[in-house]
Amino acid sequence: MFKSKLFYIVMMIVLIVISGCSKTDESKDVSVKSSDNDSEKQEEIELTFYYPVQVGGPINKIIEEIASDFTEENPHIKINPVYTGDYDNTMIKTQTDIQGNNPPDLAVLLAIDLYTLMDMNAIIPMDDLMENDNDADEYVSDFIPAFLENSKADDKIWSIPFQRSTPVLYYNKEAFKEVGLDPENPPETWNDLIDYSEKLTVRNKDQVERWGVQIPSSTNPWIFKGFVLQSGGILDENGKDVYFHEESVEEALQLHLDLAHKHETMAKGVIDWATTPTDFIEGKAAMIYHTTGNLTNIKDNADFDFGVAYLPANKNYGAPTGGGNFYIFEGISEEKKEAAWEFIKFATSAERAAQWSIDTGYIATRESAYETEVMKEYLESFPQAEVAKNQLEYAGSEMSTHNNGEVTEILKSAFQSVLTGEQQPKEAMEKAQQEADKVLEPFRK
Amino acid sequence: MRRFYQKQSFRINFHAFLLLLPSLVFLLLFTFYPIGQTIFHSLFKSDLSTPEPLFVGLENFKRLSEDDTFWKVLMNNIWFAIGTIPTTIIIGLLMAVVVNKHIVGRSWIRTFLFYPAVIPAIAIANIWLYIYTPNFGLLNYVLNMVGIGSVDLLAHSNTVMFAMIVMVIWKEAGFFMIFFLAGLQNISEELYDAAKIDGSSRSTTFTRITIPLLMPTTLFVSILALTNAFKLVDHLVVMTQGGPNNASNLLLYYIYETVFKYWDMGYGATLTTILLLIMMIIASVQFLFMEKRIHYN
Questions:
Q1: ipTM
Q2: Chain A interface disruption, residue of B33, B135, B238, B257, most A CBs within 10 A
Q3: Where is A163: in which H helix or E strand?
Q4: Tens digit of pLDDT for each residue in B80-113?
Q5: Which domains occur in chain B, in start order?
């Protein structure tokens, strides 16, 4: 008697488990079906939009606002913004959904993920949509050229710049005054940089109380590309070629080593990206290289007067761009693609771009954004924000290749092994070049 | 009679299997099926340059031997295991012995020793990132006070692993203490009384009674510690991203990088198969050989 009862209990558990599984499957089917229906009906279009949050500030609120404002103007299109973590997680979620044949309609992803997304056959070129749009050429040409560089491949435009940044030099004006430097004259060349950093470094016996300069090197070699550009190099080309063993790269490495070991005005080893702004705010570093994305943070937290300047030049000025672009995905209906294009144009309109820049610290991506009243007012009250925009004249693309994740990692490891003294610049970069060539070889056919 | 017996045993077996069925279903669905899939995928080349997976046999496994990073993270992982496992077990045991005694504020001390174990690894990594931060971090603050000077443990490839190991010991020791504490309280007081009457010294009592009777706990804890040494990579995401120059990188984080940064699914599956193999060897060695040397009371 007892045993048969037990038997039924077990069977019931099994049934519950099985029915539980099947139920989730059903609900999934329903949602897939309903989204199919939406696209068939045409009048009602619903778009899924993945976006990352990479900097502080009420990004979620602003994005939701853009989406609802857009629906107000275009009642037949509904945008569903989905917050998907940081850039890495957004990319992972997107990729997983592509493999499950359920891609998002549009997403903001790193500009440098272009080749990766192309190789996954995940995205469509914007040119397809621009053909049917009379204002498209005018619209695209309004973007600041440096920001468009990471959008182009195979003579097509694959993404639209949205939240973009570039590294700048932040310097402590009070520290400048203290050591007799002119606070309105930031370093302009590498020699100035070395000079100034020597004056700005404060020691108490053997202890360094304030470093002259701090260049982060922990996350990826983003800022490093700036030094290569300043030395007249290019680092990468067409997504298929990298130039790691060029003289410009060696010069850039040597500057890092000189600052740390010869002049001892920068900490030795690898410098953390995330704590660098804090070091600056705490007065532990007099000059730092960091993204414009931190402008608002530093402005709000530094209790001293600070300046923002171009990255010092070697042969010329130079800086990479960074940040995220809009992409539209393959495998969605034509109507959805068109709707996504309309939304992108809306979200990057001059006024939106200006407001977005003011709210977040990102650089407004379009020339016309700087003609708007809000932007003019903002720049008047906070002129530091304009430096980054002006520097863009000298800016180049961020390193972006096929297999970008692995190529970046190769460069990062080589760069760090030089900083920690494990390898000499020359051998490290020659090895990195070989490794990168191997990774890029399948794409050179 | 015999048939009846067979029938009985069949019924018992059948019922036993029925009772196991729910967990078996989940085990098959979420453990064995993915393992099979992983091994299957490890035979394919499937990365960004090959959109359609290409069968390559054992090519991916050959690639392992030439992959310097793989050997580096594997060695790192071994050092990480050697650095963390014995120390956490010994410290956990000692802490358990201390808080098992009737001392003042015993439950407070237990709580403080245990609390690192309940904090998520990500939070711990953030705390220790602050401790290790050069210039204004806690460690450097203390070092500056005693006049040793500033160090940046995370910035150099020869110190970063040490810094990680210390952090993990801090996190894990309290967790293991709880198991040892439970084990200690299971040992009968009579044994200690008998030892006392026989005039056994404290160290003899400890090595001849406490340690042997704690062996089941020690086995359990050492398996946990070993698997944790291969599982625990959360801190890398926060603190070093495996750097500088892969000096703090571990096998599981390298798998994550291979799959979700390089999008090399085939090779990622190969690395996962290797990790699986290592774990299986460890588990079988522990269960098959150590089992024999354990006294259950």
A1: 0.79
A2: B135
A3: strand A160-165
A4: 999 999 999 999 999 999 888 888 888 888 888 8
A5: 70-293 (1.10.3720.10)
